[in-house]
Design goal:
Radius of gyration: 18 Å
Strand order of the largest sheet: 2-1-10-8-9-7-5-6
Order of helices and strands: HEHEHEEEEEEHEHEH
Helix content: 10-25%
Strand content: 15-25%
Length: about 250
């Protein structure tokens, strides 16, 4: 209801509007003895009731693409998903050469829930010189880099990606050849994915409705003639009360 409401009220003059759902890693557990969400129900309900075109990214992932001690996906595991998104959003994906930068001794948000000692992991973040000419402006705290390396070693080092939780971010690419713009309604999974879309867009706007109301976001964002992607994990889909959308305005 919330997504349909946004689509009907704010996105009538947008270019193309899609949604995609990232499953939490329990989806990929092969053994049925583990307690899981009813994913078939979730996807069938969304496909039946959402008035948006669907991009199925589920087959582009596997269990090994997720951190062991964290809910999130490793950034260098997103390329198959990006190619699938390109089939619909048509941002003309091409291979970009990245430098792999590695941070060791990463303990994700799930580490404290492990009942016995578990080895640390590594975070790989992918760097290209193009990021030097990109402006990343957060509504809350101004300009920040694509990769906020000051976050490495803090309680949640995953916040190296786009500085962590933020209500609204505008990423502007100074490449004069590009002319496409994208608006992404997202959760924390988008923090590591979206930097890999930057080389293909003039501007990307990220809206996280857990931290800003939809009516407030609309004061800052022009949706006209933009491509729009709703990209949420099943964890958010299953707790949609987190999204600050007032259906009774």
């Amino acid at each position: 209801k919330k997504i349909n409401y946004i689509n009907d009220k704010y996105l009538l003059n947008s270019k193309n509007v899609y949604y995609a759902v990232i499953p939490d890693k329990a989806y990929y557990l092969e053994d049925d003895k583990y307690l899981k969400m009813d994913y078939d129900y979730i996807f069938s309900k969304l496909n039946k009731e959402l008035d948006l075109d669907y991009i199925n990214v589920v087959p582009t992932l596997k269990m090994e693409d997720y951190y062991k001690t964290d809910i999130h996906i490793k950034q260098d595991s997103y390329f198959d998903m990006i190619k699938e998104l390109d089939k619909y959003l048509k941002f003309n994906y091409k291979k970009v050469n990245y430098e792999k930068r590695v941070y060791y001794n990463f303990y994700g948000a799930s580490y404290s829930k492990v009942y016995k000692s578990f080895p640390s992991e590594t975070i790989v973040y992918l760097y290209n010189n193009i990021y030097e000419n990109v402006q990343v402006n957060h509504l809350e705290f101004g300009n920040k880099p694509i990769y906020d390396t000051e976050k490495l070693g803090e309680v949640d080092s995953y916040n190296v990606f786009l500085s962590g939780p933020s209500s609204l971010i505008e990423i502007v690419n100074d490449d004069e050849v590009l002319d496409k713009e994208l608006i992404v309604f997202r959760d924390s999974f988008g923090s590591s994915l979206v930097p890999l879309l930057v080389p293909f867009y003039k501007k990307i706007t990220l809206i996280d409705l857990r931290y800003i109301t939809m009516d407030k976001a609309a004061e800052y964002v022009d949706f006209e003639d933009k491509d729009v992607l709703f990209l949420y994990s099943t964890l958010i889909v299953n707790t949609s009360n987190l999204l600050k959308v007032n259906l009774h305005e």
